[in-house]
Structure formats: C-alpha cells, structure tokens
Write a sequence for this structure.
C-alpha cells in the first residue's frame, strides 16, 4: 500500500542509529522511496555509505556540500517527502526543533517541510525524563508532530528505564499506518461549513463578511484525506472544491441552515468554520435601490443561529464551533461553547496579525467542554486543520 511513498529518514547521533539501518531496509522492501539525512554526530555511529547502499540514494550530511542536481537540497527534500521519520532523535535535536533552531541540514529540512513528522526519541533515561525534554516533546505533540514512545529496558549506558529505540518493525508499522495516512476518520461522516454568507439587499447588493473559506476548506480537504466522508457546505468562495468532498454551495444563512439540517441526522461530526450573518435585511428590494435621500435605512431581522439549533437537536454528534472575536476572546468563546452545547470551540482573535479572515495562517485557542484550553502558535490553516482533526479523532475514539 505504501509503494511510491517518499520517506525522508533523519538519523541523529545515538547508539540506536544502528537500528535505523534495519528501518531503511524494511521501508525499501515495503516499496517506499527513501532518502537519508544524517547529523554529523550520527556519522560517528554508522557510516553514510551503509545508508547509501540500503536506500540507493546519496546520503546528505552537510548543508554546504555541492548538490548532486541544481536545487536547494533541503527545500527539495522538504517538498519531496510524504513523511519524515527521525530515528533515533536525540534530546538535542528535539530541543532544536521545538525551539525553532535550524542550524544543520536535518533541522532546516524539518522546518521547511509540510509533511507529517514522526519522532522516535532514544536516549539515556534521565535525559528522556528531564523536564526540559518532556516539555519540548509536549510542545511538538501539540504542534502536530507524532512521537513514538521509547521502549523501556536496559540501555547502552547501563541504566534501566525508558529510552530505548523501539524495534524497527514497530517503528515501520507506525510510519506506514501514518502514511496511508492516518485513515483515522474512515467510516465517519463529517459536515463542515466554510466561508461567509451573503444576505441580499437588492438584486445587486448584499451584506457579507471577509471570510474566504480558507479555514473550512483546509479542514474539509484534510478530513477527506484522512478517510472521512466529508460534506462541505460553503458560502461563496473563490477556492476550488476540494477533492473527494461533496461540496454544496449556498449564499444566505437560511440556505446554509437548510443544507446543514438536511445532513445533520446522519453525520458524526459537525465543524462550523463558516462566518454566518447574524442579521439579514427584512425586505429584499425587487429592483436595484436607486440613490435618493442623504441616508438610507435598512431594517435587519435576526437570522437563525444554525449552531445553536444543532446544539439543541444534538444526539451522538460531536459539535465543533469557531468563535471569531475582536475583544474578550476567551469570555465570548466560553459563552458560545456553553450556550450552543458544543464539545469544542476554536477561538480566534481576528485582530491579531497572522490570524482570522482571508489569510493562510491562523492563531487559535481550543477550548473543550470540560474547561481544558490549548493554545496554538501561529500556524498555517492546513496545520491547524490537522491538529483539530487529531483532537476530533481522539474524541471519536473515546466516545466509541
Ligand atoms: O474563511 P477564512 O478567511 O479562512 O477565515 C476563517 C474564519 C475567521 C472565518 C474562521 O476561523 C472563524 O472564526 N469562523 C467562525 C466565524 C464566526 O462567525 O464566528 P461567530 O463567533 O460569529 O460564531 C460562532 C459560531 O456559531 C461559528 O461556528 C459560526 O459558524 C456559528 N454561527 C454563527 C451565527 C449563526 N447565525 N449561525 C451559526 O451557526
């Protein structure tokens, strides 16, 4: 199933580097194309030649070596990879990645990639348990990295405890599962709303908002790639309909309400990333309104609150809302979570540079119904989508 997948393996300087030889060999046998990056320290434990022979590709050890073809090597590899595995990853490299340090070819490539990254830490037990290492690993997990727990046993340094690199077969299984790529949403129907609504004033004018659909489309695309059966109800957006997603286009809040209700009974998850107009003009003029007096008054009436309605009808479904705020972010988001009977709300302060409407990144805080809060740094909307789906996938597993 993994034939044709491109894997970059990073090897750091630890005694367990000898096991990575077996990992590369197993991945090749599974039909993957493998390229290896070694840190300088790793080359003290195993020679690049060994990895070159097994992978059938030149091994990269140096940022400054003459590239074999004309391209920027770390960027080319970052784009080429379907997945990254660093095994063993040392406390030093965990610390560098967690703190944005990119001072060699491995850490630079990791920083440049959008592919999923698996880390297999192997080190002395005390180093592994050191709070700094643990904090760095937690930070990376929260950023969407996948950490393979080290095995427990007698370590090369003579201490017994966690810190051993798991058996190569275990690591390869985890990597291949992740590649095929986490079909963790298979069998789940997921309804996602995206974009802003438009409330007509007359045949040529409307009340709208700045939502581009980027956040909701990123979620729909990622959920479909993870095996979910995705229905995307979208307000007007210039984005192309994502692959393998049933996309239903609507204009107004009332149309979005109807489209969402038509699906609600049969879905497992609803994610409402759309920015829905709270009010609409009471009357829609049949003809274009002509310029006349100095002022024009348009009477607005309340739209249905779609999410509130779903919260009242909810049975087994997970309900995820977004809150776009310009002040008192957490207070308002908490209120919406409770009032709309949500399982989770994703709060974004849309006044922050790098967050909110019509840009490629967002800065969000996730609030759960048990009161737990997780804060994410500025990330691409694709990365945020993956992290939110990780959380949703965990919630779905717990509820079955
Ligand atoms: O589309 P982008 O340009 O990528 O921008 C992304 C985003 C800023 C639109 C997105 O991250 C976001 O915050 N979406 C929710 C915007 C919003 O309308 O928030 P709200 O606080 O007004 O509404 C709270 C929740 O109730 C939302 O899930 C909303 O979809 C839902 N709602 C609101 C009003 C209404 N009448 N019906 C609803 O279902």
């Amino acid at each position: 199933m993994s034939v044709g997948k491109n894997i970059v393996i990073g090897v750091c300087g630890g005694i367990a580097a000898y096991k990575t030889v077996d990992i590369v060999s197993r991945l090749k046998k599974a039909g993957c194309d493998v390229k290896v990056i070694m840190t300088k320290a790793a080359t003290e434990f195993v020679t690049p030649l060994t990895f070159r022979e097994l992978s059938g590709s030149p091994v990269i050890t140096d940022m400054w070596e003459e590239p074999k073809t004309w391209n920027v090597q770390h960027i080319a590899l970052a784009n080429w990879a379907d997945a990254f595995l660093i095994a063993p990853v040392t406390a030093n490299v965990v610390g560098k990645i967690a703190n944005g340090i990119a001072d060699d070819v491995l850490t630079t490539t990791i920083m440049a990639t959008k592919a999923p990254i698996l880390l297999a830490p192997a080190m002395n037990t005390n180093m592994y348990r050191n709070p700094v290492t643990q904090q760095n690993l937690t930070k990376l997990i929260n950023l969407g990295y996948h950490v393979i727990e080290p095995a427990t046993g007698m370590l090369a340094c003579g201490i017994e405890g966690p810190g051993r690199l798991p058996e190569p077969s275990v690591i390869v299984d985890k990597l291949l599962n992740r590649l095929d790529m986490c079909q963790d949403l298979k069998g789940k129907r997921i309804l996602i709303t995206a974009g802003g609504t438009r409330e007509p004033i007359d045949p040529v004018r409307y009340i709208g908002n700045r939502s581009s659909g980027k956040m909701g489309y990123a979620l729909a695309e990622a959920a479909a790639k993870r095996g979910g059966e995705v229905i995307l109800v979208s307000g007007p957006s210039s984005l192309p309909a994502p692959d393998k997603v049933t996309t239903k286009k609507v204009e107004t809040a009332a149309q979005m309400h109807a489209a969402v209700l038509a699906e609600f009974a049969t879905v497992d998850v609803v994610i409402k990333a759309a920015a829905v107009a709270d009010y609409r003009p009471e009357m829609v003029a049949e003809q274009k309104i002509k310029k006349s007096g100095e002022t024009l008054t348009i009477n607005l009436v309340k739209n249905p609150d779609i999410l509130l309605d779903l919260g009242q009808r909810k049975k087994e479904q997970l309900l995820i809302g977004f809150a776009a705020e310009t002040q008192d972010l957490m207070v308002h988001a908490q209120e919406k979570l409770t009032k709309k009977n949500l399982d989770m709300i994703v709060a974004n302060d849309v006044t922050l540079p790098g967050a909110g409407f019509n840009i490629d990144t967002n800065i969000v805080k996730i609030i759960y119904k048990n009161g737990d809060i997780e804060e994410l740094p500025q990330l691409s909307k694709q990365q945020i989508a993956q992290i939110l789906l990780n959380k949703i996938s965990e919630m779905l597993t717990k509820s079955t």
